[in-house]
Design brief:
The protein is of the alpha+beta class. The protein has one domain: Distorted Sandwich (Glucose Permease (Domain IIA)), CATH 2.70.70.10. The chain is about 35% helix and about 20% strand. The chain is built from 3 helices and 12 strands. The relative contact order is 0.13.
Length: about 290
Amino acid sequence: MLKHLLPFTLILLIFSTNTYAQDEGKKKLEQDFEQYKKEQQQDYEQFKKKREAELKKMAQEYKDYYNGILGLKTKYSKTNNTQSLTVVNEIIDFENNVTEAVGNPVTKIEPAKVKLDEPTVTAKPISNINTTATVKKESKKEEEVFSSSESDRDNVPSLIPVPKSKAKITSPFGLRLHPVLLLPIKHNGVDFGTGRGTPVYASANGKVVIAKYNKSYGNYVVIEHAEGVSTVYAHLESIKTSEGNMIKKGSIIGYTGSTGRATGPHLHYEVRIKGIPVNPKGYLVENKE
């Protein structure tokens, strides 16, 4: 009897051992997965905090930039420097238009109303910037442009807005000598020295919220993308789109020129997050021949 039971006992023992090993293996995999999820969440939270800190820093820099422009407005008003005051008013008008179209409704900047011969300043300085404001989508059609069925990359401004052969940056983001005012003023974008007549591409899917003329920035287009991100394209020779148009990544929106106060034909390009200018360098990752 024992002779016949021995093989069965061995089989049962092997089966039980294998089952135990499988259970332990499964348990170990579950533990490893939970640990992986925990680490991923921690990494995400760290990234989120870092990004929020960076955005807060950029918001402060933008506030300083704008309030500095208002300071110049006061100075030129008091000294009756009408030529420089005109340039400053143009910059303020541009910032007001862009902010109103894509940015912070909590800190909406009122348009400057100072006449050339008036020393008073009615434009309100920025005291606080809401870095958590979200952009409200207005229609089903607009939602479709930002749809998750599209590649996420197509909804983020990752495409360099000019052909690869013309993508040389001639003026980077950051402090520089303003070409007209001849003062160190922050440059809120990058300039591509493209020459005249180069096609300009939408760097991501989005909605055209501005397509107009400004005496300093010339013909310019602003496109609103997903998650409060927007892009600006200025000094265009001509605009080939209209306000309200839904635009696809890579579509031609205009051609480069030197309209406005430009020293030569080029493209001025900006990336903004909730209205705050950020360095476009990290977004220039794709080329179009």
